[in-house]
Specification:
Elements (H helix, E strand, L loop, with lengths): L3 H13 L5 H10 L7 H14 L3 H15 L2 H13 L3 H10 L7 H18 L7 H12 L7 H13 L3 H20 L5 H12 L5 H12 L15 E10 L7 H15 L6 E5 L2 E6 L2 H15 L13 E10 L6 H20 L1 H5 L4 E7 L14 E2 L3 E6 L2 E9 L13 E3 L2 E9 L4 E6 L5 E7 L1 H11 L3 H11 L9 E7 L2 E7 L3 E3 L10 H21 L12 E4 L4 E3 L37 H19 L13 H11 L10 H17 L9
Parallel strand pairs: 4-5
Antiparallel strand pairs: 1-3, 1-4, 2-3, 5-8, 6-8, 7-8, 9-10, 10-11, 11-12, 12-14, 13-14, 15-16, 16-17
Helix pairs in contact: 1-2, 2-3, 3-4, 5-6, 5-7, 6-7, 7-8, 7-9, 8-9, 9-15, 10-11, 13-14, 19-20, 19-22, 20-21, 21-22
């Protein structure tokens, strides 16, 4: 029963080979009692075993013991922070007391115990109101070793903010001093203890290093911006950020140059102040939008080309903004509260380090003290994700956005594809003002076409339309269409601040590029138009209108089938920035009433079908596109007239009516009942 070596060897062996049987778990449970060298590893496997079995209490206990066994300061801190944010302060205190009082760990342990008191107090939206907790926090502040880092400053401010207001604190101290004097007079307190306690109470709780850093942020302002036109706002933004320099690191000179360049960007802002602390910095401004824009500009310019620097040594930045009305930060306590929240916002950005490391440039978060705070971040230079709730401090949940400053697809290629859900985007096909089109491959190995709205446009659309529901609902409706003449929508979604959808890849060409035979040309045109109209009718039956009908969106496949694609969806409507023009005039497929702001309806699509029919007939005759009626074959004139009339009331009122007219043309062409030549 006490075969320590055998039990330890079996436990190590089963852990190494990831044996998950009940017997292996029982061996590990007995072996860890002997505190073997790999105790932490064995306990980690026990933790996973209990979690898989659904015994969360035992899993939590084993996790705690594994952390204690590893004796790693960073891991200990991370574990205690999770307990704080779970508001399990009694568990955090008990864990820290188990650490023991080893001399080298004592300062960290005492600081963490004091922070536990502070966060518990803040979670209840109050300051410390009992003598014991005040003493614990004050002791930690007096012993505070101020290393130059944002984490140390965050701890320092957390402890300070948890204490009562200075005036209240002084009154409480006076009452306590009076009480101690009575105890001394009654002989209940020895003389040495009484005078030592008095000297300790007089000790200054402020750290000189941090106070010198905070001074310009709390009291300084440079007023207006220099050489920059910026808007005046009623908000103030507090920014906390920190650099790290990839896997290969960076020379000190490069680091200093980057920090100085960023400082120059931020100091141009109105009401700006700047402070460096280690590899991090703090900054304030009275123009939140410009504050974010300046940092985004710096990040974009700092992203060097691959031939200039290895990606492993590229600078990464985690940053967080706290936005607050200017009128609410007039006093030191209010300013400390704002800085504290900026530091915690940065901490949340930093916690996603694994995700951030896959994103060149880093991660930027913004939070606000009021519901409309995030609306101040309005710029075409960056995008915002949809707002989501995040726990900033224990017991304090606020609205948050991630700032998306890069176009994730800017450098996509077949060699470096970009993954959207289960779709690998490989080749750019066209870039538009508001979106871009790419060739991609889905999880089934099919070629698909992907259209993506970038983050900045997504943000603007969400604000103008009260969210993204209209876009997503329209895409879902398209996804329900199932017709052989409509390109199938495979997937849709939102990722990294982008909206996208993936549809069927069609091999073929726009229908207007088709050369119809001289003998059967008009008959083929009629058959083609019937396919189009029947597809539109099927979509209408599902409540979907096309409203974007033009030759580029009507393709004839290599198999001879019509495919309608790219139905109108808000955000995905726009001509390419660059388009090739063959010099020929192009007929307008936009119904006349739409030019006056009238809402589109089924007759707008009918008009577009008529214009397409006219272009196909003109092309078949070898003529340039024309709106002259006498150039239209006589057999088609009535159909064309009733589809392209400027008055929507005089057009066909349904696809069924249009289909019937096209069927009559088709029958006449088949039976030869009418002359198909141009009407003189």
């Amino acid at each position: 029963p006490n075969a320590e070596r055998l039990l330890t060897a079996l436990a190590t062996l089963s852990s190494t080979h990831q044996v998950t049987s009940e017997f292996a778990a029982s061996i590990r449970k007995r072996a860890v009692e002997f505190a073997p060298a790999d105790e932490a590893q064995i306990r980690s496997f026990l933790q996973n075993h209990y979690r898989s079995a659904g015994d969360m209490q035992e899993a939590k206990l084993e996790e705690e013991k594994a952390v204690l066994a590893r004796k790693d300061a960073a891991e200990t801190r991370a574990y205690v922070e999770r307990l704080w944010w779970d508001q399990d302060f009694s568990a955090a205190t008990a864990f820290l007391q188990q650490m023991g009082a080893k001399e080298e760990a004592e300062p960290d342990r005492e600081r963490l115990l004091a922070l536990t008191c502070a966060y518990e107090t803040l979670s209840q939206h109050r300051t410390v109101d009992n003598e014991r907790d005040v003493a614990v926090i004050e002791a930690a502040l007096r012993a505070f070793q101020a290393e130059p880092s944002l984490q140390a400053l965050r701890d320092y401010l957390t402890l300070h903010v948890a204490l009562p207001e200075p005036e209240v604190h002084v009154a409480q101290a006076a009452e306590q001093q009076e009480f101690e004097e009575y105890k001394f007079i009654l002989g209940l307190t020895p003389m040495d203890n009484f005078f030592d306690n008095g000297q300790e109470q007089k000790a200054d709780l402020r750290n000189p290093l941090f106070e010198s850093l905070l001074e310009p942020l709390l009291h300084g302002s440079n007023g207006a911006a220099k050489n920059r036109k910026t808007k005046s706002t009623s908000w103030r933004s507090y920014l906390a950020g920190e650099f790290r320099w990839g896997a290969q690191g960076m020379r000190n000179s490069d680091s200093r140059d980057a920090m100085q360049t960023l400082r120059q960007h931020l100091e141009k802002l109105p009401g700006s102040q700047w402070v460096e602390i280690g590899s991090g910095f703090l900054s304030t401004s009275t123009d939140p939008g410009a504050h974010v824009e300046a940092l985004v500009t710096f990040l974009r310019r700092s992203q060097l080309r691959p031939e200039q620097r290895s990606p492993d040594s590229a600078p990464l930045l985690s940053a967080g903004w706290w936005l607050v009305p200017e009128k609410t930060v007039n006093h030191r306590t209010e300013q400390l509260q704002a800085l504290l929240r900026a530091l915690h916002t940065h901490h949340l950005a930093q916690l996603s380090r694994e995700e951030t490391s896959r994103k060149p440039g880093g991660r930027l978060l913004a939070m606000g003290s009021a519901p409309d705070a995030l609306h101040t971040l309005d710029s075409r230079e960056f995008g915002l994700t949809e707002e989501f709730e995040k726990q900033l401090l224990p017991g304090e949940t606020v609205r948050c956005v991630e700032i998306v400053w890069q176009d994730p697809l800017a450098s996509v290629s077949a060699e470096t594809p970009y993954k959207l859900k289960d779709i690998f985007v490989k080749t750019p096909l066209a870039r538009h003002r508001n979106y871009a089109t790419y060739l991609a491959e889905d999880a089934l190995g099919r070629q698909v076409v992907v259209k993506v709205i970038p983050p900045s446009v997504t943000t603007r659309h969400a604000r103008e339309h009260g969210g993204l529901d209209t876009v997503q609902d329209a895409l879902r409706a398209l996804g329900r269409l199932n017709h052989p003449n409509i390109a199938t929508l495979y997937d849709m979604g939102e990722q990294d601040g982008q909206i996208f959808f993936a549809r069927e890849y069609v091999e073929g060409a726009p229908v207007t590029h088709t050369r119809f035979s001289a003998e059967e040309g008009q008959l083929d045109i009629a058959a083609t138009l019937l396919q189009i109209v029947r597809a539109l009718a099927a979509a209408e039956a599902e409540g979907v209108m096309h409203h974007n009908l033009k030759p580029e969106n009507v393709w004839l496949t290599d198999a001879g089938e019509i495919k309608l694609m790219d139905f109108a969806v808000a955000g995905f409507l726009e001509a390419p920035v660059r388009s090739q023009d063959d010099g020929q005039p192009k007929p307008s497929y936009l119904a006349p009433e739409l030019h006056t702001g009238q809402a589109p309806d089924i007759r707008s699509d009918i008009y577009a079908v008529g214009m397409l029919a006219r272009e196909l007939l003109d092309a078949h005759r070898g003529e340039a596109p024309s709106e002259e009626r006498d150039l239209i074959p006589e057999l088609w004139q009535e159909t064309i007239a009733k589809t392209t009339d400027a008055d929507p009331e005089k057009r066909f009122q349904s696809f069924r009516e249009l289909e019937q007219s096209l069927r009559e043309v088709q029958i006449a062409l088949l039976t030869g009942d009418s002359d198909s030549e141009t009407h003189a």
